[in-house]
Predict the structure of Membrane protein FdrA.
Amino acid sequence: MTAVNELFNKNIKVINLGLESFCKDLKDQHVPCIHVNWRPPSEASKGLSLLEDEGIASKIEKANKEAIDRLLAAKPILIGVGQAGKVIPGMTKKTILHAGPPITWDKMSEPVKGAIIGGLIYEKLASNEEEAIKLASSGEITYDCCHHHSTVGPMAGVVTYSMPVWILKNKTFGNYAYSTFNEGLGKVLRFGAYSSEVIDRLNWMQNSLAPVLKAALEIKGSVDLKTIIAQFLQMGDEGHNRNKAATSLLFRELAPAIVKTKFSDEHKASVLTFIDKNDHFFLNISMPACKCSLDPLEDIEYCTILTAMSRNGTDFGIRVAGTGKKWFTAPCEMVKGLYFPGFSESDANADLGDSCITETAGIGGFAMATAPAIVKFVGGTPKDAINYTTTMYEITYAENNAYKIPNINFRGTPTGIDMRKVIETRILPVINTGIACNRAGVGQIGAGVVNPPMKCFEDALKSFIKKYNLK
């Protein structure tokens, strides 16, 4: 009997490489099988060998260590509330900021266009949808991405001149970051809705919410956000799509000062009620906290750590510390998740928003293990949430020394996405996110999980090799 025949007379246990369907077929026939998620090296991954030269590798290691030291040393604090046009650098009355890498009106996705229409009506630069579209496409409006102005915005990320914004500071390095207030879920501007209900809410936020919060912070002083993030990660939040504990912690910080302001009891009660009813209120603080923590990494030569991931509903973009402020883009992926009643994948826009700055900093999808309940919102199982987090350790440089996850033995969150590891392992960062409708004016229709395109990382590697003349 040949060795092959002897083999097939035994109980076989199979390790499957390649197509996962082979593993499934074997399991259907009750053959024990383990699937290994392996792919052949890509052309781009061959360029990694140029980074392994001893002299270059030591420079990269030193740079990456410096980057992580800066990121872990960051101390984001909330210091105030201001008007976007007066505090965000480079804003004018006809400047509109948006999420993601730079894009022109003609290439914008429908939810971004919808948010811009709403922004123009809110600013009274247009009185209706028709006028807003005409102005938006006229060339009179200056469009730029939030990241170019130390700002981040969820979903469409639209910021206009009159909008109130949070002002944050990285106490360690002195840089600032900004974000608008969170409107809540459903039919809101950031998901591309612009009905009168949306505009009325924005006006209330400007005229009623912002003055109270501004006065409260003047009484309170700064709020230590690093402590809040560390706390909410041990209370079931991950800082992107689950913010219940975070919002409650912020409420506790601000409520006593709100009560001390000189506004009427009814006015103060309306503000407290709005915060209390909006479980996502902290998201628009979590995001700039991550932004101002990551920005000090941008000037580190030879560093392969990401400083930003962002999407505008058309293109996904990443930035790598060692290549500065340059964007590497590819078409956005579709989100896989759960839809609100009456909606399906056919109604969905592609991936959208600056909110994956949270994942870039090591929370959000990277910390889903600490927030198993989030799967009720984005889909999957509690085990999936743990697997998402543990897989991210494969592509990150370090574990956070302040942000700990209780149910995986208090490991620090996976921190510092390393371009090299993403390309080498073919493991992409995991992002949990809301889903916007692909028709302007509708709003949010669900939530789910998505990944960046691999092309962004491959192009970043090519640019890195070219910049440092690696041969």
Remarks:
- The radius of gyration is 23 Å.
